[in-house]
Amino acid sequence: MNAANTPLQTLIIVGNGMVGHHCVEQLLAQGALERYRIHVFGEESRRAYDRVHLSEYLGGRDAESMAMGDAALYQQPGITLHLDEAVTGIDRDRREIMTASGSLAYDKLVLATGSYPFVPPIPGAAGTSRLVYRTLDDLDLIREAARGARRGVVVGGGLLGLEAANALKSLGLEAHVVEFAPRLMPVQLDDFGGAALKARIEALGVGVHVSRATQAIEAGEAYRYRMRFADESFLETDLVVFSAGIRPRDELARQAGLALGERGGVAVDTHCRTSDADIYAIGECASWNGCVFGLVAPGYQMARTVAADLCGAAGQPFVGADMSTKLKLLGVDVGSIGDAHGTTPGARSYRYIDEAGSAYRRLVVSADGKQILGAVLVGDNSYYDTLLQYVQNGIAPPEDPSQLILPQGEAAPALGADALPATATICSCHNVSKGAICEAIAGGCTDVASIKACTRAATGCGGCAALLKQVADHELASRGVAIDKSLCEHFPYTRQELYDIVRVEGLETFEALLARHGRGELGCAICKPAVASILASCWNRPIQEPHLVPLQDTNDTFMANMQKNGTYSVVPRIPGGEITPEGLIAIGEVARKYKLYTKITGGQRIDLFSAQLHELPDIWAELIAAGFETGHAYGKSTRTVKSCVGSTWCRYGVQDSVKMALYIENRYKGLRAPHKLKFAVSGCTRECAEAQSKDIGVIATENGWNLYVCGNGGMRPRHAELFATDLDDDTLIRYIDRLLMFYIRTADRLQRTSVWRESLEGGLDYLKAVVIGDSLGLAAELEAQMQLVVDRYECEWANALSNPEKLKRFRTFVNDRRADPDIRFVEERGQRRPAEPAARVIPIAEEIS
Known about the structure:
- It is built from 23 helices and 38 strands.
- With 849 residues, it is an alpha/beta fold.
- The strands form eleven sheets. The chain has a five-stranded parallel beta sheet, with helices on one face. A five-stranded parallel beta sheet has the order 9-16-10-11-12, with helices on one face. It has a five-stranded antiparallel beta sheet with strand order 21-22-25-24-23, with helices on both faces.
- Helix 1 packs parallel to helix 6, helix 8 crosses helix 10 and helix 18 packs across helix 21.
- The longest helix is centred in the C-terminal third of the chain and has 18 residues.
- It is globular.
- The N and C termini lie far apart (69 Å).
- The C terminus is likely disordered.
């Protein structure tokens, strides 16, 4: 088409959700602005955002960080984004859309209106007893309703319902799920899978009520509302969130007289065209062959089909979509692949059931046993990628298909990347095949990051990241590109290999390790702190020893966290958050004397900001005299052990959580690890200490303690997983000893426990076998290594204060004890904060010329 001679047509996209946004991206990538003026209408006030990770918004993630793509996408000439402007009608005769502000003519129209949450007509459902979980605005309403509330109920035990329950827990509420069907996730799971999921969800402290039909919502007695069920039972709550399924937003299509699917939705053909050839429908509002697809990947596939059709390109027709899903609900792995319910005539099933661990796996095979048709997974998704490729690519199973779902050690060998055909779909969100990844590598991509940038694989939901790396590594290796796993140019070993070398050979200095097993004379910013961490983890020597100081980064060098204006923060250890009035007064007096900004942290500590380098020894001298120790907030080490008040004060507490938190913190303080470690101890299942978001979480039961492992907050939040139940005190500590030391031995550099756990072949079952079952015969050795670290603990600041040579480091200028003249403050809310712009930062001592 000659754009200079042909008038531009007007293309209108109604809906700026994930699918509508993806359609815009695909259109622009195919040169649509040479053909069309594009108008995009969104009824929300925000541009498209990531609904897949909606629950992270309640966990503290801001709305802007959830936005899809760059805002500049909608600011280029030829495209106009109309936010907070709903399309109210379509006039097909005049080829116009109507909004509250007027009308706009179109040549082509794409409906991407999505779906809405279905709320059954229940008497009494209104206001905070009729909340829904769909948009950021909905979540704002839920957050507001949760203020002062104690209990929340979600109606609907599907994917979104369990996400909503997780959101209620994150807001500090006691959460319950009510499901009409006899099991959770009835669409994806069978009865055994539903039972396993129910057991795991209940173990997390969420009430599960299946086979319950809500008849009415009335005034409650102990709580604000009472939900009355058909069997005359009831449940009281302070708020109700409905997540009982979705319905396609097809009201515009109905008004315009477009053909609809039998069960709703705008009927479309294989090109996603409606009964009007100039109108398309994509995503959850579209009905193809009578089916509405409620996942983002099929919507993206439709968007690509429409973009190609509108741009005159050869697109891939839409002929249905794979509804396989890999999920993590309240920290519990759930997977559903292909014909999960075994509805194919003659299909046979193999089942693995672990009632004690609430794990379940089902494998569905064809009548002749030569084809894998589907699978159900609860408790461990490490099998998912392999089984998905068997189903999607028709790969012949082993002679005994049951090996594919047996525990690691008994199972068949994993399906390697070389067994996948070029057509195998690696990333379903962006329809990236193995062949496309190979082409990217042939075009010059040499690592996973560049492959992601080139193909967009693993940039959607991220569930294919592990498989992408496996395929990339295999393809690079097959082309003769070495997959270098060296720590850095100075050490041709992984962190795990270096740890073993240090431990076995008894090496206690960087120089000795470099001389025996490294290259060069100096090391670098990668290997120095990594080796320092390894040496500390093995031998727990003070980091201020002369041979260790050159290895540290700025924070460890000065045993304080550097802030943006060149000052430092001081965090004294307050084990379990328990502190006496005298301790509070001592900290307050230090803060007042040195004019430090004070802030209570989320880990139940007091953070003192704005200390200058030369003040650190004096501040710590006063804190140590008052009985405090370093809190290690500057190190990749044990940070905090958060606790509730437990049975000492709380009427719901069943164990003394403070006592246990104090013991745990005092045992593991000073423990250096590949990444920071956070703990929490809750005195009951109400979980006030938020133990299920920590590396090590302990929750009291009537019979002892439940142990949760490998959770974390941060940029990629992950719920901890239930590891062992009803443990006595000694067993609990033994398991924590073993697990932490096994993590320290085997994790990669700067790898959090959550990422380490996900990388373990065999998953949680393997970790249980090592720690609980001692399958590697390491238990005694791991415990002894931990005890060595515990026995050698000393406060690093107390050690430094006793050594005049070490104190010489704490000067801004080597030959002068003056303060840094470039550091400036302003007062705000009664305390000092850094002046803007931030002053010059001096990370190392320098001499005044």
